[in-house]
Amino acid sequence: MVAINLTILYPNNDDIKFNFEYFVGTHVPKLTAALKDLGLVGWEVVKYSHGADGGVPAYQAGLILKWDDKEKLQAARDGPVKAELVADLPNFSNQKPTVLAGGIVSSS
């Protein structure tokens, strides 16, 4: 059972350069392979098409990483693999993402 999510949101603004094909085809497979051995139990990529008001979305893409244990997530965030994954960011984006972590309190 998923206990905690790490959500990474990539901004959508006039200055953004974001290579979605590289992100999905190279970065995400690299990330999930590296984190699987560190307790990652699932993931989803979201491509946002519009905001809640129907306008331009604040974020263009999101990556939701699912963990069954808060300590495993923290160990992965503190480990050496993080530096490698962060170093890959300039290959697909010129801006830092927003990163959120939160425990699952209800789901269906």
Task: Considering the chains and any ligands shown, give keywords for the structure.
108 residues, alpha+beta, 4-stranded antiparallel beta sheet, globular, EthD domain-containing protein, EthD_dom, Dimeric_a/b-barrel, oxidoreductase activity
Structural account:
Helices cover 31% and strands 29% of the residues. The chain has one domain: Alpha-Beta Plaits. By secondary structure, the protein is of the alpha+beta class.
- Largest beta sheet: strand ordering: 2-3-1-4
β-sheet strand percentage = 25-35%
Helical run tally: 3
- Regarding CATH, which class? Alpha Beta
SSE pattern? EHEEHHE
Alpha-carbon distance between the two ends: 12 Å
Can you tell me the number of structural domains?
A: 1
Could you give a short description of this structure?
This protein has helices spanning 20-36, 70-78, 81-87; strands at residues 4-11, 40-47, 59-67, 98-103. The protein is α+β, with helices and mostly antiparallel strands and 108 residues long.
